[in-house]
Amino acid sequence: MNDTIEVVDLHTGTLQLTPEEHAMLRGDKGPAVQEAIRFQIEVGSFFGARRFVPITHAHVMGDIEVMGDGGLQHLRSMGDQHARCVVPTSSNAQCMHFHDDARLRQDVDEGAKEREILARYKTMRIAPTDSCIPYQQVYQPKLGEHVAWGDTGTVIYANSVLGARTNFEAGKASFAAALTGRTPAYGFHLDEARAGSLLVDLRAPMRDPADWGALGKLVGHPHQDYFAVPVFDGLGRMPSSDELKHLGASLASYGSMAMFHMVGVTPEAKTREAAFQGRAPRETMVITGADIQAVYDSYRYVEGGANIVVFSGPQLSLFEMQDLAERFEGRRVAPGMAAVVTTNHMVHSDAKRLGYVDTLEKAGVTILQGVCFYILQRLSQIREENGWTNLISNSGKLVNTITAHRFNTVLRRTDDCVDIACTGTLA
Amino acid sequence: MTTIHVKRAWGKPVRAQALVMREGFSPRYDLDRWNGVISRIGHSAEGESIRDRVLIIPTSKGGVAGGWAFFDLLNKGIAPKALVFGKLNPVMVQGAVLAGLPIMEGWDQDLLALVRTGDEVHLDPSARTLRFTPNPP
């Protein structure tokens, strides 16, 4: 008779578990699931979560640049424990472009690790979509549907535009949710967090993706609060998916925000009252065209060195690829300039079939697949090797997120970005 | 000795020197994750190392990178000792739990006005307190 007593940590924190969840915690579904639910209990208890909610989809974020060797070892450990996702799961943009452009050289050893990560994803039943816009191609959760998404731009789009429910599920969190098929019910899974808190009276003519990024900066930067929910009213037309993508990505970047409403546009904001759940706004902002222009005017170029124009952050949709191809057709990136586009494999495949890729490449534009520019492995060294000083982009998010790599960033409208790329003249 | 009470906390007690930031922080936007030094041009703590320090941060910025980044910093031997936020997002909690870093949120006095970089602070997450000896006025 075995007289040893197995010590099992059955700490449940603030959560009340179902019998199935208790079984996971006891280890009945294997060590990977047990470790995952333990992690979820710790995080959920921090926020006072009372229960788990089942999810239908997970979107994981992990690449060798951000995970490092420690993260890779953790992933290997999950694999050794036979971790398998129990809900459909996709992956975010990665850090290695596997492109032969000599200006964008990445480490061979790190590339091998990145390939191992992607291979391990497949073993775990994660589809390596390498996409930070899964809501445009991969999976579109419905109103009220709970998911666990691990990219801020995807989270804010899901909560706001689709009316689905997710928190930022970073690093291990989205993997854990994929393995247990559930996530702790706190934050944006609950009705009360989804009420608007800040009214934005939008009186600006919004005519370019960069305008939406500038708007996100104006609202997000002075209100850095995950639980702030701006409510936009006054646009007077129906914005496109790409426009809302740029707004959300920028709000999430500058304000760390996970949700917004737009009256008459997003599903939980049929009226202003509905968006605020009947409460009064804590604050009202008015944003005019002059305010948007002031954002552009606030950027300064730095003398010296070469410069780069980047269309990325989030990855480009098929229609953004079409638009850029039309703008670059018959033109050529100026000597001494670089122009880079990033998108995912699904968009790239169709853009290639439709001729957009060839048009852009003929113009001298470099197209990187499966990555987003600011997360590229070895980016600081790439900047130094090319002598890139100013980075010009039409992405409000990108000009904010890339600054640890010491680029001088400048936000410009798409027309200006293309002109700067093709003339080499900073304007 | 001044005692600050916080709204939420996780982790084991820790005692270390503070690094006080005057603005939001993201390990991706603001930090050189290969040497542990704040690298964003113009950040209030630019040039400071986060290694072995208690980071006192008014707000979290961005981004999901923190979910892996703190664990990576730990593996590289350049992790902070703990994180103390005025307001945070779940990324910071998820990253801290994975890396085993104590984390706190929501102070009942203006911590940024009371504690200075270099002061020794003592965190007791189970009591939801942070203690330090205040500087002379």
UniProtKB/TrEMBL annotation, chain A:
<feature type="domain" description="Phosphomevalonate dehydratase large subunit-like">
    <location>
        <begin position="15"/>
        <end position="419"/>
    </location>
</feature>
<keyword id="KW-0456">Lyase</keyword>
<keyword id="KW-0408">Iron</keyword>
<protein>
    <submittedName>
        <fullName>Putative aconitase subunit 1</fullName>
        <ecNumber>4.2.1.3</ecNumber>
    </submittedName>
</protein>
<dbReference type="GO" id="GO:0003994">
    <property type="term" value="F:aconitate hydratase activity"/>
</dbReference>
<dbReference type="InterPro" id="IPR007506">
    <property type="entry name" value="PMDh-L-like_dom"/>
</dbReference>
<dbReference type="Pfam" id="PF04412">
    <property type="entry name" value="AcnX"/>
</dbReference>
TrEMBL record, chain B:
<feature type="domain" description="Phosphomevalonate dehydratase small subunit-like">
    <location>
        <begin position="25"/>
        <end position="104"/>
    </location>
</feature>
<dbReference type="Pfam" id="PF01989">
    <property type="entry name" value="AcnX_swivel_put"/>
</dbReference>
<dbReference type="InterPro" id="IPR012016">
    <property type="entry name" value="PMDh-S-like"/>
</dbReference>
<protein>
    <submittedName>
        <fullName>Aconitase subunit 2</fullName>
    </submittedName>
</protein>
<dbReference type="GO" id="GO:0016829">
    <property type="term" value="F:lyase activity"/>
</dbReference>
<keyword id="KW-0456">Lyase</keyword>
<dbReference type="InterPro" id="IPR002840">
    <property type="entry name" value="PMDh-S-like_dom"/>
</dbReference>
